[in-house]
Amino acid sequence: MVAKDELTRLKDQAVQSADSSLLAVARGDSPADLLLSNGQIVNVFSGQIERADIAIAGDRIAGIGPAYRAREIVNLNGSFVAPGLIDAHVHIESSLCVPGQFASAVVPRGVTTVVTDPHEIANVAGIEGIRFMIQASAGLPLRVVVMASSCVPATDLASSGARLDARELAQLLAEGAVHGLAEVMNYPGVIAADPQVAAKLHVFCGRPRDGHAPGVGGKALNAYVAAGIGSDHECVSVEEAAEKLARGMYILIRQASTARNLDALLPL
């Protein structure tokens, strides 16, 4: 999931980088460098499949539509063209791959960005494990957005290799190493305003704070949302998802290797 403010930033960045040659191609006055013809465009703005040509100038899409000229033309023969896929919640370590190997597996399948919670390696190696994942993700053809693991250890009953408190998470944020707070699985602690959990949430005030609240509803959900958590990927029924959506949460529909919720949540 990309927040609206991030989309606005990307649009502004695109406008600022536009030059006269790009606009000339967009108007049809100059030939494009590459024309992808006869494609079926998955238009995520209109929710429709649009058959059209795509004119590319340099590394930018200049225009979509008929009657563009180009130095090189590739006939897609009706193939689908879609924006790069974003996996809004993943644990790269679950693949048993380092980030580079993971990228080689998912990029050819259309994934351009992943939002990862490295809490598996963090529960073994602590803050240095998170730093390793960040360093190993640099320079890849995959954009890896790292979130700060909120539950290390996963529970107070666990015998983990490390423990991360609010101070260490604040250090990662100050370094610019993480984007926000990863799934807050200790939802009882959130709802009860546990001081340690509240301290972590406070560190990331104004930043994305992802949720993990299976089956939480009613006043307990109100408290969870009031704590500043903005998303959930644990919904298993359309009723649960609809309630969380009505409380202002972003709903991530999970279709994973073990939990498959897409069919149940499609009516949403």
At a glance:
This protein is an alpha/beta fold and 268 residues long. It has helices at 4-17, 20-27, 99-106, 119-125, 127-136, 166-174, 187-191, 195-203, 218-226, 238-246, 262-265, and strands at residues 34-43, 48-57, 60-64, 73-75, 80-81, 85-90, 111-116, 143-146, 181-184, 209-211, 231-232, 250-251.
Report on the structure:
This protein is α/β, with parallel strands linked by helices and 268 residues long. It has helices at 4-17, 20-27, 99-106, 119-125, 127-136, 166-174, 187-191, 195-203, 218-226, 238-246, 262-265, and strands at residues 34-43, 48-57, 60-64, 73-75, 80-81, 85-90, 111-116, 143-146, 181-184, 209-211, 231-232, 250-251. Among the domains are: 19-81, Urease, subunit C, domain 1 (Roll); 180-268, TIM Barrel (Alpha-Beta Barrel). Strands 1, 2, 3, 4 and 5 form a 5-stranded mixed β-sheet that branches. Strands 6-7-8 form a 3-stranded parallel β-sheet, with helices on one face. Strand 1 and strand 2 (48-57) form a beta hairpin.
SSE blueprint and pairings:
Blueprint: H1 4-17, H2 20-27, E1 34-43, E2 48-57, E3 60-64, E4 73-75, E5 80-81, E6 85-90, H3 99-106, E7 111-116, H4 119-125, H5 127-136, E8 143-146, H6 166-174, E9 181-184, H7 187-191, H8 195-203, E10 209-211, H9 218-226, E11 231-232, H10 238-246, E12 250-251, H11 262-265
Parallel strand pairs: 1-4, 1-5, 6-7, 7-8, 9-10, 11-12
Antiparallel strand pairs: 1-2, 2-3
Helix pairs in contact: 4-5, 6-8
